[in-house]
Structure formats: C-alpha cells, structure tokens
Amino acid sequence: MFIAPKDAVHRKILSNIEEVKARRGRVLAVVTRGDEEITALADHVITIPETIDPLTPVLSVLPLQLFAYYTAVRRGCDVDQPRNLAKSVTVE
C-alpha cells in the first residue's frame, strides 16, 4: 500500500512502486486525482482531491481508515471491541 500524493517525494514513490511491480507485487495506492503515472502502475487506486500540503495527510487517512474498517469486518473481527484496547489504555 502506498500513500502517493503529488508532493516533493512523488518521484521516489513512483520509483518504489515500479520496484514492487518488477517483483510481481500488488499495489494499492492512495493518489491525488489526475495522477496518471501511478494510476497506470497500481492494481487498485483510491483517489483524493488535490489540496494544500498541510491538509494532504487528513485527506489520505480517511480512505485508509475506511479500508482498515471494512477489511476487519470482512475478516470477522469485532470492530466495536478491539482486542487488548482496555489493557493498553489503562496500563501506564
């Protein structure tokens, strides 16, 4: 899974995706809308709108949270009562 918005490290992320694909890996990428380079390489793409740099992490995390939620539901995990949550919250 790659978080690949159009930013200063876009070229490096593109290179990493190419390396994963060369090794026959599957790629899921969160990309900025209109990014044809990564869209062409990735197996699955989630698009986010273009925005100012400080807001990019906020827009990127939303689809990732939903992805994690629906993956957990599909696996049969109890998403309303995660394991060990009470222990990690109460132990200092």
Give the topology.
Layout: E1 2-4, H1 10-22, E2 28-32, H2 36-41, E3 44-48, H3 56-75, H4 85-90
Parallel strand pairs: 1-2, 2-3
What do you see in this structure?
By secondary structure, this protein is an alpha/beta fold. The longest helix has 20 residues, at 56-75. Helices cover 49% and strands 14% of the residues. It contains four helices and three strands, in the order E-H-E-H-E-H-H. Helix 2 links the parallel strand 2 and strand 3. The protein is globular, with a radius of gyration of 16 Å. The protein starts with a strand and ends with a helix.
Task: Please summarize what this structure is.
The chain has helices spanning 10-22, 36-41, 56-75, 85-90; strands at residues 2-4, 28-32, 44-48. With 92 residues, the protein is an alpha/beta fold.
Characteristics:
three-stranded parallel sheet
Strand count, sense and barrel status of the largest sheet are: 3 strands, parallel
CA radius of gyration: 16 Å
* Beta-strand proportion: 5-15%
Helix content: 40-55%
Which H/E pattern describes the elements? EHEHEHH
Anisotropy-based shape: globular
For the termini, the CA-CA separation is 32 Å
Q: Please give the count of helices.
A: 4
The overall pLDDT average reads 88
- Derived from helix and strand composition plus strand pairing, the structural class reads alpha/beta
Largest sheet, order of strands side by side?
A: 1-2-3
Low-confidence regions: none
Strand tally: 3
